[in-house]
Amino acid sequence: MIHFPIVADSETLEKMKDCNQCGKCCIKYGDGALSATAVEIDLWKLFEPHIYQYVKDNEIWFCPETGVQLSRCPFLEIESSQGKEKYTCSIYLSRPEDCRHYPSNIAEMVRDECEMIDVKDLEDFKKAQSKLDDLMEGSRPRRQ
What we know:
Blueprint: H1 10-14, H2 24-29, H3 38-47, H4 49-52, E1 55-56, E2 59-60, E3 76-81, E4 84-89, H5 97-100, H6 106-111, H7 125-135
Antiparallel strand pairs: 1-2, 3-4
């Protein structure tokens, strides 16, 4: 019997893993490390008061009742699925630019232990950055 190796198409081999919603980025940056642009804040004030209520002095994620900085984004939701937690954003389409632009580079992903990155991606940072830029094309400007 002849066995042929299974070969994936080149697109599969060249594509970075999709986000698995591990939540590491949202948990790490959701405690005051994020900012929103003045335009985002103005739009929330006008059209999305449920988001704007968490803004204080043009900074985001403060408790509306106490004015205290929250330790986690109030819009981060946790779902349990087959024994694994998945994190979702309840304001995904209106999320701050900081969130839309993450991850911006491979070093950041490594530092944050992002699960989108694979060991094979670390063999060539320049190629991995290009794959990341392709993946994030609709969310942020391409890195130069």
